[in-house]
Amino acid sequence: MTDFHNHFTSTSSILCTSSLLPQYYTEEKWEEMKREKPHHLGEAGLDKRYLSLVPLEEQKRRLTDILTFAKNNGLCVTLHSVRSTSHTLEVLSLFQPFERTVIWHGFTGSSETASILYKMGVIISIGPRVPEEKIKNLVQANPLFVLETDYDGNSISEHEQLIKEVYNRASKALGITEERLEEMCLETAAAFKI
Ligand SMILES: [Zn+2]
């Protein structure tokens, strides 16, 4: 399991990315990433909370650039979307299918959206804000899923405890063992090349 906000992971596979979120994005950072071509780009995406800082059209233009570059260079993207589902889907639709190279982190959308993303080959990452009773529907709609804690602290023990809770909650919601759940998540993560 990987936390996409602070790149903190409890496993040996560490995913390091640099934020391209609207509020942190700079042309310099983007140019540097294009030179370095890291295996993963992001987080990147649309966030309605920052419209006064970066207008929606500019946010969409940046995301379009990032997805174009990722697609042309075989890179993975961690996608961030806050109150921007229809706009995010609109941009994604220009580039799909993704063959599991894009992960929508902190997904809290509907089963319908999850199903559209499945057809696009986009992985969803289900965080603690998704109510337990909704998890099963989401996974049925998009079996390409992983789990996340959204933990932003820096205590390893606290993080590990949270991971246990996340697995426990989701395995109950899905009616499967934690071992099976872990296998499913690892399979998806492997597809995302973590
Ligand atoms: Zn995010």
Q: What's the SSE blueprint?
A:
Elements: E1 2-3, E2 8-9, H1 27-36, E3 40-47, H2 56-73, E4 76-82, H3 85-93, E5 102-107, H4 111-120, E6 122-126, H5 132-141, E7 145-147, H6 156-174, H7 178-191
Helix pairs in contact: 2-3, 4-5, 5-6, 6-7
Describe this entry's structure for a reader.
The protein is α/β, with parallel strands linked by helices. The chain has a single domain (2-191), classed as TIM Barrel (Alpha-Beta Barrel), CATH 3.20.20. The protein has helices at 27-36, 56-73, 85-93, 111-120, 132-141, 156-174, 178-191, and strands spanning 2-3, 8-9, 40-47, 76-82, 102-107, 122-126, 145-147. The strands form 2 sheets. A 5-stranded parallel β-sheet has the order 3-4-5-6-7. The chain has a two-stranded antiparallel sheet with strand order 1-2. Helix 5 (132-141) crosses helix 6 and helix 6 (156-174) packs across helix 7 (178-191). It is globular, with a radius of gyration of 16 Å. Residues 43, 80, 105-106 line the site of zinc ion. Zinc ion binds next to strand 5.
